[in-house]
Amino acid sequence: MSYCVHCGVELDASLKRCPLCNTPVLDPHNIPTEEAVSPYPSRKGKVDEPVRRKDIAIIYTIFLITVSVTCGLLNLFVFSKAPWSLIVLGICLLLWVFSIPFIIYHKISPYLAIILDGGVVILFLYMLAILIGRFDWFYSLALPIPLLFTFLWVCTMLLHQKVSHSFSALGLYILSDISIFCIGIELLCRHYAEKPYRITWSAVVLTVCAILSILIISLFFIPRLREAARRRLHF
Amino acid sequence: MHKLFNMRKKENIKKQISNKDNTKKQISNETDRRTWYRLDLSAIVYPTLQRKDFSSLYRLSALMKEPVDPQLLQQALDMILPRFPTYKAAIRKGLFWRYLEPNNRPGPFVMPDIKNPCMPIPFKSNNRYLIRVYYHGNRIALEAHHSLGDGTGGMCVLQTLLAQYLRLQGHSIGTGGFVLDINEKPDPEELEDAYMRYSNAMTRPPRMAEKAYRVRGTKEPFYTLNIIDGIMSVSRVMKVAKEKYHVTITEYLNSVLLYALLQKQAADRHSKLRPVKIAMPINLRRFFPSKTLRNFITMIYPSIDPRLGDYTFEEITKHVHNYMQFYINEKYLRGDITTNAATQRNPFIRVVPLFIKDLVVRTFYTKVQDKNSSAGLTNMGALQVPDDMKPYLERFDIYMGQPFSNRTNCAIISFEDILTINFASSIKEADVEQYFFCKLIQDGIPVKIESNRS
Q: CA nearest A24 in B: which residue?
């Protein structure tokens, strides 16, 4: 019979330390010759998943590979006028890469997942450009727009994680993203159409976003308003 | 003598198996395709909180005087389960609400016990059964999802299982109390949602909700549940509670837990103190007669606000005693369950699709309800067991299961003169448990500790 010298409780013979204070059980006059059996088993249980994620990932991957290969063979030997199977291959690749965080590998870094998503969209558009046989639209629009989108998304995630993750701050980041993205699209379109650089419809978006941002900032910096909003919107 | 005993045992087993066949036939008639059960008022919430690493499970276990025979245990389980149609059930999703439907798949199968009990139970695993039965050495344990029923319902299943197991061993065990007759048809009252019968107060008392102190600790990795059992004498605890503090055992142990949490908050050196609150389920069957085996509990929140000043232990016991006197009575509890039932009765809420309800309930629980208490405490009280079963039982244990957030849950049960206090937590530190048991030692109550911590 051992007692914890620190807590004063009697300890089960199988315990080598007091589970309450972690003090080791040490009695030089009474060294047990046999190891006492714990009232608890040593085996740890695990949750049995009804359908394993790994199995879904394998089936999903095999399905996409089969679709791509069969379409490629059809394109090669039967309907061989144009390389149309590039579209199917591109869509399969898009679906596979988009599903990585959900089905294939859920521990993937969100930054890497977004960069991969952006990359595969660009690759798909490049395949389309090959199919069409024209690359001017690709370099002027199809490449910079996904790049800009990916860049803004990564920035938002970084700000949300490192700077502030409040709802109001997230609102500000998203509004800023929308404004920058719309301006970017308009300028890129004008560049492609060889028109002078100026903003028109994106200025309207910018104004709306600015108004909403000012509202959020007011809520953020005026304690009275912030409290009123918190009171009325609390869960 | 041995041969004679074995012969009798075999005859008994044969009789039980023929009884089992009869019961099966009865049940197959009853559980036709049209049978299904609405979830009761409490049970609606529990499946919503289901996560990959959390299920609202509780565990009841009995320590027998002899090692458990798994084959007999499986036989006993197969024989008793049809008597509990809401436990032999699977949970399904409807458009607006979830519901239970009879589950005739093979199982549930008894399993060797594990170190980390109360691990999540995905609804589609375990052949869709929401109960598990474990054995280890002399122990038989039942784990059940809260959406099937509360501790009282679970105790009926466990004790009926124990009784049947002992009968299969050749002992003569009667029925009564928690042990139900497995040859009887289930009483419709056992399957009722008793909340709806008694939630008829003229007014709905408002609820105060204030963020409570939350124990800070290092979260254990998934698949870990730290258990600390304190075993003591009921008479010693009773003596201290009655003679020293003039309160009941529940009030005394509640006060000790509040005292432990206050000490923990003081040791944490928080810049902002918060009230210390305990979420304590109350068995409503004590006030509203019902045989229901489903959920019929409501929560009360005894609390101490350290911002008002330093409380001595005597002041805490007095405060808890007054709180219990004020809140635990038929009138107040009727009002409380009426408030709970009001949301389910509201026709506008009823027509909201289930996924929206899930979203709202989960958000409300995470943002408000979970932050409303510092720890959980439940007291099953002194357990009544048929006299002919008592010689084969050593003690009972009860665990509130994995806490929803990082904290510790405490569950109390007593059988004969053994009172067991079971702490279950998902954090590494055991400070609250240490303060709790040290206070009992200070009050002169000897405590024996068992744990699965290594």
A: B454
